[in-house]
Amino acid sequence: MAEAWLNEPLAPAARRLLIGAVEAFAARGYHATATRDIAARAGLSAAGVYVHFASKEELLYQISLIGHRGTVQVVRAAAARSDQPAVRLRAVICAITAWHARYHTTARVINYEMAALTERHRADIATLRREIDALVRQTLEDGVAGGVFDVPDVRGTTLALLSLTIDVARWFRATGTRAPEELGALYGDLALRMAGHRG
Amino acid sequence: MAEAWLNEPLAPAARRLLIGAVEAFAARGYHATATRDIAARAGLSAAGVYVHFASKEELLYQISLIGHRGTVQVVRAAAARSDQPAVRLRAVICAITAWHARYHTTARVINYEMAALTERHRADIATLRREIDALVRQTLEDGVAGGVFDVPDVRGTTLALLSLTIDVARWFRATGTRAPEELGALYGDLALRMAGHRG
Protein backbone atom coordinates (compact mmCIF):
# COMPACT_ATOMS: atom_id res chain seq x y z
CA MET A 1 0.00 0.00 0.00
CA ALA A 2 1.55 3.25 -1.19
CA GLU A 3 0.24 5.17 1.85
CA ALA A 4 1.78 2.82 4.43
CA TRP A 5 4.60 5.35 4.95
CA LEU A 6 1.97 7.33 6.87
CA ASN A 7 2.26 5.06 9.90
CA GLU A 8 1.35 7.59 12.59
CA PRO A 9 -2.04 8.28 14.25
CA LEU A 10 -3.84 11.11 12.46
CA ALA A 11 -7.35 12.48 12.00
CA PRO A 12 -8.80 11.17 8.69
CA ALA A 13 -8.85 14.64 7.09
CA ALA A 14 -5.23 15.32 8.10
CA ARG A 15 -4.24 11.96 6.63
CA ARG A 16 -6.02 12.76 3.34
CA LEU A 17 -4.30 16.16 3.24
CA LEU A 18 -0.82 14.65 3.73
CA ILE A 19 -1.47 12.06 1.01
CA GLY A 20 -2.84 14.76 -1.34
CA ALA A 21 0.14 17.00 -0.61
CA VAL A 22 2.65 14.23 -1.41
CA GLU A 23 0.91 13.52 -4.73
CA ALA A 24 0.73 17.21 -5.66
CA PHE A 25 4.35 18.00 -4.63
CA ALA A 26 5.63 14.93 -6.50
CA ALA A 27 3.67 15.79 -9.66
CA ARG A 28 4.40 19.52 -9.99
CA GLY A 29 6.93 20.42 -7.29
CA TYR A 30 6.37 22.19 -3.96
CA HIS A 31 6.50 25.74 -5.31
CA ALA A 32 4.05 25.06 -8.16
CA THR A 33 1.48 23.50 -5.81
CA ALA A 34 -1.29 25.76 -4.46
CA THR A 35 -2.81 24.95 -1.07
CA ARG A 36 -6.25 24.82 -2.74
CA ASP A 37 -5.00 21.99 -5.02
CA ILE A 38 -4.05 19.96 -1.95
CA ALA A 39 -7.42 20.78 -0.36
CA ALA A 40 -9.26 19.62 -3.49
CA ARG A 41 -7.37 16.30 -3.51
CA ALA A 42 -8.46 15.78 0.12
CA GLY A 43 -12.08 16.83 -0.56
CA LEU A 44 -11.78 19.95 1.60
CA SER A 45 -12.02 23.71 1.09
CA ALA A 46 -8.79 25.73 1.12
CA ALA A 47 -9.83 27.08 4.55
CA GLY A 48 -10.28 23.48 5.74
CA VAL A 49 -6.55 22.88 5.28
CA TYR A 50 -5.71 25.45 7.96
CA VAL A 51 -7.78 23.59 10.56
CA HIS A 52 -5.11 20.88 10.38
CA PHE A 53 -1.92 22.56 9.12
CA ALA A 54 -0.68 26.12 9.60
CA SER A 55 0.72 26.41 6.06
CA LYS A 56 1.82 24.58 2.94
CA GLU A 57 5.31 24.44 4.44
CA GLU A 58 3.88 22.76 7.56
CA LEU A 59 2.43 20.03 5.30
CA LEU A 60 5.85 19.48 3.69
CA TYR A 61 7.47 19.45 7.14
CA GLN A 62 5.05 16.84 8.52
CA ILE A 63 5.54 14.66 5.40
CA SER A 64 9.32 14.98 5.80
CA LEU A 65 9.18 14.26 9.53
CA ILE A 66 6.96 11.16 9.19
CA GLY A 67 8.97 9.90 6.20
CA HIS A 68 12.34 10.36 7.90
CA ARG A 69 11.07 8.86 11.18
CA GLY A 70 9.87 5.84 9.20
CA THR A 71 13.28 5.45 7.56
CA VAL A 72 15.05 5.75 10.93
CA GLN A 73 12.72 3.03 12.29
CA VAL A 74 13.47 0.52 9.53
CA VAL A 75 17.20 1.32 9.79
CA ARG A 76 17.21 0.78 13.58
CA ALA A 77 15.27 -2.48 13.22
CA ALA A 78 17.66 -3.75 10.53
CA ALA A 79 20.73 -2.76 12.58
CA ALA A 80 19.37 -4.50 15.69
CA ARG A 81 19.33 -7.86 13.91
CA SER A 82 23.06 -8.49 14.28
CA ASP A 83 26.26 -7.25 15.91
CA GLN A 84 28.30 -8.51 12.96
CA PRO A 85 29.20 -5.51 10.77
CA ALA A 86 28.74 -7.40 7.48
CA VAL A 87 25.29 -8.72 8.40
CA ARG A 88 24.31 -5.32 9.79
CA LEU A 89 25.53 -3.34 6.76
CA ARG A 90 23.75 -5.65 4.35
CA ALA A 91 20.49 -5.50 6.37
CA VAL A 92 20.59 -1.71 6.79
CA ILE A 93 21.25 -0.96 3.10
CA CYS A 94 18.63 -3.52 2.07
CA ALA A 95 16.05 -1.88 4.38
CA ILE A 96 16.74 1.72 3.28
CA THR A 97 16.68 0.68 -0.38
CA ALA A 98 13.38 -1.19 -0.03
CA TRP A 99 11.85 1.79 1.83
CA HIS A 100 12.86 4.21 -0.95
CA ALA A 101 11.51 1.82 -3.60
CA ARG A 102 8.22 1.07 -1.86
CA TYR A 103 7.49 4.71 -0.99
CA HIS A 104 9.29 6.27 -3.95
CA THR A 105 6.80 9.13 -4.39
CA THR A 106 7.09 10.20 -0.75
CA ALA A 107 10.85 9.63 -0.85
CA ARG A 108 11.21 11.95 -3.86
CA VAL A 109 9.36 14.73 -2.05
CA ILE A 110 11.30 14.43 1.22
CA ASN A 111 14.68 14.21 -0.50
CA TYR A 112 14.22 16.79 -3.25
CA GLU A 113 12.20 19.51 -1.51
CA MET A 114 14.40 20.01 1.56
CA ALA A 115 15.36 23.51 0.38
CA ALA A 116 11.69 24.55 0.70
CA LEU A 117 11.61 23.88 4.47
CA THR A 118 12.20 26.71 6.96
CA GLU A 119 15.67 26.74 8.47
CA ARG A 120 14.37 25.37 11.78
CA HIS A 121 12.40 22.55 10.15
CA ARG A 122 15.35 21.67 7.92
CA ALA A 123 17.51 21.39 11.06
CA ASP A 124 15.01 18.89 12.59
CA ILE A 125 15.15 16.74 9.46
CA ALA A 126 18.96 16.99 9.34
CA THR A 127 19.07 15.52 12.89
CA LEU A 128 17.16 12.43 11.71
CA ARG A 129 19.37 12.11 8.62
CA ARG A 130 22.51 12.34 10.77
CA GLU A 131 21.30 9.35 12.84
CA ILE A 132 21.11 7.19 9.70
CA ASP A 133 24.46 8.50 8.46
CA ALA A 134 26.13 7.83 11.86
CA LEU A 135 24.79 4.29 12.00
CA VAL A 136 26.15 3.39 8.54
CA ARG A 137 29.48 5.09 9.29
CA GLN A 138 29.79 3.26 12.64
CA THR A 139 29.04 -0.07 10.95
CA LEU A 140 31.84 0.55 8.43
CA GLU A 141 34.22 1.55 11.24
CA ASP A 142 33.30 -1.55 13.29
CA GLY A 143 33.97 -3.74 10.25
CA VAL A 144 37.34 -2.09 9.61
CA ALA A 145 38.30 -2.45 13.30
CA GLY A 146 37.22 -6.12 13.23
CA GLY A 147 39.21 -6.80 10.05
CA VAL A 148 36.21 -7.80 7.91
CA PHE A 149 35.97 -4.56 5.90
CA ASP A 150 38.61 -2.63 3.96
CA VAL A 151 37.46 1.00 3.60
CA PRO A 152 40.13 3.61 2.77
CA ASP A 153 37.58 6.48 2.91
CA VAL A 154 34.85 5.81 5.49
CA ARG A 155 33.19 9.20 5.16
CA GLY A 156 33.08 9.08 1.37
CA THR A 157 31.89 5.49 1.31
CA THR A 158 29.09 6.25 3.81
CA LEU A 159 27.99 9.12 1.58
CA ALA A 160 28.09 6.89 -1.52
CA LEU A 161 26.11 4.09 0.16
CA LEU A 162 23.32 6.43 1.30
CA SER A 163 23.35 8.30 -2.01
CA LEU A 164 22.84 5.01 -3.86
CA THR A 165 19.74 4.17 -1.77
CA ILE A 166 18.26 7.68 -2.01
CA ASP A 167 18.46 7.82 -5.82
CA VAL A 168 16.16 4.77 -5.94
CA ALA A 169 13.34 7.27 -5.34
CA ARG A 170 14.16 9.01 -8.65
CA TRP A 171 13.98 6.02 -10.97
CA PHE A 172 11.98 3.29 -9.20
CA ARG A 173 8.53 2.51 -10.60
CA ALA A 174 6.15 -0.07 -9.11
CA THR A 175 5.57 -1.33 -12.67
CA GLY A 176 9.25 -2.28 -13.11
CA THR A 177 10.77 -5.75 -13.05
CA ARG A 178 12.26 -5.68 -9.54
CA ALA A 179 10.30 -5.79 -6.28
CA PRO A 180 11.54 -3.43 -3.51
CA GLU A 181 12.99 -6.38 -1.54
CA GLU A 182 14.82 -7.78 -4.61
CA LEU A 183 16.42 -4.40 -5.24
CA GLY A 184 17.27 -4.22 -1.52
CA ALA A 185 19.03 -7.59 -1.73
CA LEU A 186 21.08 -6.49 -4.77
CA TYR A 187 22.06 -3.21 -3.10
CA GLY A 188 22.91 -5.04 0.15
CA ASP A 189 25.34 -7.23 -1.83
CA LEU A 190 26.82 -4.20 -3.62
CA ALA A 191 27.25 -2.45 -0.23
CA LEU A 192 29.39 -5.35 1.03
CA ARG A 193 31.54 -5.04 -2.09
CA MET A 194 31.88 -1.27 -1.61
CA ALA A 195 32.98 -1.97 1.99
CA GLY A 196 35.68 -4.36 0.73
CA HIS A 197 34.09 -7.22 2.66
CA ARG A 198 36.32 -10.26 3.01
CA GLY A 199 33.57 -12.85 2.82
CA MET B 1 33.08 27.91 -14.57
CA ALA B 2 29.53 26.86 -13.78
CA GLU B 3 28.30 27.69 -17.30
CA ALA B 4 30.90 25.56 -19.11
CA TRP B 5 28.24 22.84 -19.59
CA LEU B 6 26.88 25.20 -22.25
CA ASN B 7 29.61 24.22 -24.71
CA GLU B 8 27.69 24.78 -27.95
CA PRO B 9 27.62 27.81 -30.26
CA LEU B 10 24.69 30.09 -29.38
CA ALA B 11 23.59 33.71 -29.78
CA PRO B 12 24.46 35.66 -26.59
CA ALA B 13 20.79 36.23 -25.67
CA ALA B 14 19.95 32.53 -26.17
CA ARG B 15 22.90 31.63 -23.94
CA ARG B 16 21.72 34.04 -21.22
CA LEU B 17 18.21 32.58 -21.46
CA LEU B 18 19.44 28.99 -21.05
CA ILE B 19 21.57 29.97 -18.05
CA GLY B 20 18.66 31.90 -16.52
CA ALA B 21 16.29 28.98 -17.12
CA VAL B 22 18.63 26.50 -15.41
CA GLU B 23 18.92 28.78 -12.38
CA ALA B 24 15.16 29.36 -12.18
CA PHE B 25 14.21 25.68 -12.71
CA ALA B 26 16.78 24.57 -10.10
CA ALA B 27 15.58 27.13 -7.55
CA ARG B 28 11.80 26.71 -7.80
CA GLY B 29 11.13 23.79 -10.14
CA TYR B 30 10.04 23.83 -13.80
CA HIS B 31 6.31 24.18 -13.14
CA ALA B 32 6.73 27.09 -10.67
CA THR B 33 8.90 29.06 -13.10
CA ALA B 34 7.20 31.66 -15.30
CA THR B 35 8.73 32.46 -18.68
CA ARG B 36 8.87 36.15 -17.63
CA ASP B 37 11.14 35.17 -14.67
CA ILE B 38 13.56 33.56 -17.11
CA ALA B 39 13.35 36.60 -19.38
CA ALA B 40 14.12 38.90 -16.44
CA ARG B 41 17.20 36.87 -15.49
CA ALA B 42 18.43 37.22 -19.09
CA GLY B 43 17.65 40.95 -19.25
CA LEU B 44 14.93 40.46 -21.88
CA SER B 45 11.19 41.02 -22.13
CA ALA B 46 8.90 37.98 -21.98
CA ALA B 47 8.27 38.43 -25.73
CA GLY B 48 12.03 38.44 -26.27
CA VAL B 49 12.20 34.83 -25.08
CA TYR B 50 10.06 33.67 -28.00
CA VAL B 51 12.52 35.10 -30.52
CA HIS B 52 14.90 32.35 -29.39
CA PHE B 53 12.73 29.55 -27.94
CA ALA B 54 9.20 28.48 -28.84
CA SER B 55 8.17 27.77 -25.26
CA LYS B 56 9.32 27.16 -21.68
CA GLU B 57 9.39 23.45 -22.53
CA GLU B 58 11.71 24.17 -25.46
CA LEU B 59 14.13 25.85 -23.03
CA LEU B 60 14.06 22.75 -20.79
CA TYR B 61 14.54 20.52 -23.84
CA GLN B 62 17.57 22.47 -25.09
CA ILE B 63 19.10 22.43 -21.60
CA SER B 64 18.51 18.66 -21.39
CA LEU B 65 19.88 18.07 -24.88
CA ILE B 66 23.06 20.12 -24.36
CA GLY B 67 23.58 18.62 -20.88
CA HIS B 68 23.11 15.05 -22.04
CA ARG B 69 25.27 15.59 -25.15
CA GLY B 70 27.99 16.94 -22.86
CA THR B 71 27.77 13.86 -20.64
CA VAL B 72 27.91 11.53 -23.64
CA GLN B 73 31.02 13.39 -24.85
CA VAL B 74 32.92 12.99 -21.57
CA VAL B 75 31.85 9.35 -21.35
CA ARG B 76 33.02 8.60 -24.89
CA ALA B 77 36.34 10.37 -24.28
CA ALA B 78 36.89 8.44 -21.03
CA ALA B 79 35.97 5.11 -22.67
CA ALA B 80 38.37 5.75 -25.57
CA ARG B 81 41.35 5.91 -23.21
CA SER B 82 41.67 2.15 -22.84
CA ASP B 83 40.44 -1.22 -24.09
CA GLN B 84 40.95 -2.75 -20.66
CA PRO B 85 37.56 -3.05 -18.95
CA ALA B 86 38.87 -2.10 -15.50
CA VAL B 87 40.67 1.03 -16.73
CA ARG B 88 37.68 1.95 -18.89
CA LEU B 89 35.08 1.45 -16.11
CA ARG B 90 37.10 3.52 -13.66
CA ALA B 91 37.61 6.32 -16.19
CA VAL B 92 33.96 6.39 -17.29
CA ILE B 93 32.52 6.48 -13.75
CA CYS B 94 35.11 9.07 -12.73
CA ALA B 95 34.16 11.27 -15.71
CA ILE B 96 30.37 11.03 -15.20
CA THR B 97 30.76 11.71 -11.47
CA ALA B 98 32.97 14.76 -12.03
CA TRP B 99 30.52 16.10 -14.65
CA HIS B 100 27.56 15.79 -12.25
CA ALA B 101 29.58 17.44 -9.46
CA ARG B 102 30.94 20.30 -11.57
CA TYR B 103 27.58 21.08 -13.22
CA HIS B 104 25.36 19.97 -10.34
CA THR B 105 22.74 22.68 -10.87
CA THR B 106 22.27 21.78 -14.55
CA ALA B 107 22.46 18.08 -13.69
CA ARG B 108 19.62 18.43 -11.15
CA VAL B 109 17.40 20.09 -13.74
CA ILE B 110 18.06 17.56 -16.51
CA ASN B 111 17.66 14.54 -14.22
CA TYR B 112 14.69 15.68 -12.11
CA GLU B 113 12.53 17.49 -14.67
CA MET B 114 12.36 14.79 -17.36
CA ALA B 115 8.64 14.30 -16.71
CA ALA B 116 8.02 17.91 -17.83
CA LEU B 117 9.33 17.23 -21.36
CA THR B 118 6.95 16.37 -24.20
CA GLU B 119 6.86 12.69 -25.07
CA ARG B 120 8.88 13.27 -28.23
CA HIS B 121 11.55 15.32 -26.49
CA ARG B 122 11.74 12.78 -23.67
CA ALA B 123 12.35 10.07 -26.27
CA ASP B 124 15.29 12.06 -27.72
CA ILE B 125 16.85 12.38 -24.27
CA ALA B 126 16.24 8.70 -23.55
CA THR B 127 18.27 7.83 -26.66
CA LEU B 128 21.28 9.73 -25.29
CA ARG B 129 20.84 8.13 -21.85
CA ARG B 130 20.70 4.67 -23.44
CA GLU B 131 24.09 5.26 -25.09
CA ILE B 132 25.68 5.91 -21.68
CA ASP B 133 23.88 2.92 -20.16
CA ALA B 134 24.95 0.62 -23.01
CA LEU B 135 28.59 1.68 -22.73
CA VAL B 136 28.73 0.94 -18.99
CA ARG B 137 26.88 -2.37 -19.46
CA GLN B 138 29.23 -3.40 -22.29
CA THR B 139 32.26 -2.56 -20.16
CA LEU B 140 30.95 -4.79 -17.36
CA GLU B 141 30.23 -7.60 -19.86
CA ASP B 142 33.71 -7.28 -21.41
CA GLY B 143 35.26 -7.51 -17.95
CA VAL B 144 33.22 -10.60 -17.06
CA ALA B 145 34.12 -12.24 -20.39
CA GLY B 146 37.79 -11.39 -19.82
CA GLY B 147 37.72 -12.81 -16.30
CA VAL B 148 38.64 -9.53 -14.56
CA PHE B 149 35.12 -8.70 -13.24
CA ASP B 150 32.65 -10.80 -11.26
CA VAL B 151 29.13 -9.38 -11.82
CA PRO B 152 26.18 -11.67 -11.03
CA ASP B 153 23.64 -9.01 -12.14
CA VAL B 154 25.00 -6.86 -14.99
CA ARG B 155 21.76 -4.97 -15.59
CA GLY B 156 21.25 -4.16 -11.90
CA THR B 157 24.89 -3.21 -11.39
CA THR B 158 24.83 -0.88 -14.44
CA LEU B 159 21.74 0.79 -12.99
CA ALA B 160 23.38 1.14 -9.57
CA LEU B 161 26.60 2.58 -11.02
CA LEU B 162 24.78 5.25 -13.04
CA SER B 163 22.37 5.96 -10.17
CA LEU B 164 25.32 6.60 -7.86
CA THR B 165 26.80 9.17 -10.25
CA ILE B 166 23.46 10.91 -10.94
CA ASP B 167 22.66 11.43 -7.24
CA VAL B 168 25.83 13.51 -6.95
CA ALA B 169 23.75 16.33 -8.49
CA ARG B 170 21.41 16.25 -5.46
CA TRP B 171 23.96 16.67 -2.68
CA PHE B 172 27.13 18.13 -4.24
CA ARG B 173 28.00 21.72 -3.32
CA ALA B 174 31.00 23.62 -4.69
CA THR B 175 31.67 24.76 -1.10
CA GLY B 176 32.17 21.18 0.12
CA THR B 177 35.44 19.46 0.96
CA ARG B 178 35.83 17.36 -2.19
CA ALA B 179 36.67 18.66 -5.66
CA PRO B 180 34.74 17.08 -8.57
CA GLU B 181 37.84 15.11 -9.66
CA GLU B 182 38.49 13.78 -6.13
CA LEU B 183 34.93 12.55 -5.88
CA GLY B 184 35.29 11.04 -9.35
CA ALA B 185 38.40 9.14 -8.22
CA LEU B 186 36.61 7.77 -5.14
CA TYR B 187 33.59 6.69 -7.20
CA GLY B 188 35.86 5.14 -9.85
CA ASP B 189 37.43 2.99 -7.11
CA LEU B 190 34.00 2.06 -5.70
CA ALA B 191 32.83 1.13 -9.21
CA LEU B 192 35.69 -1.39 -9.54
CA ARG B 193 34.65 -2.91 -6.20
CA MET B 194 31.01 -3.10 -7.31
CA ALA B 195 32.19 -4.88 -10.46
CA GLY B 196 34.05 -7.44 -8.34
CA HIS B 197 37.35 -6.42 -9.93
CA ARG B 198 40.18 -8.85 -9.34
CA GLY B 199 42.99 -6.29 -9.19
Order of helices and strands of chain A: HHHHHHHHHH
- What general outline of chain A do the C-alpha atoms trace? elongated
| SS content category of chain A | mainly alpha
Distance between the termini of chain A: 36 Å
Multimeric state: homodimer
**Strand element count of chain A:** 0
- Biggest sheet of chain A, open or closed, and with what strands and sense? none
Structure description:
The structure is a homodimer of 199-residue chains. The two termini of chain A are 36 Å apart. The first copy, chain A, has ten helices and no strands. In chain A, helix 4 runs parallel beside helix 7 and helix 5 runs antiparallel to helix 7. With 199 residues, the first copy, chain A, is mainly α. The first copy, chain A, is 71% helix and 0% strand. Chains A and B meet through helix 8, helix 9 and helix 10 of A and helix 8, helix 9 and helix 10 of B.
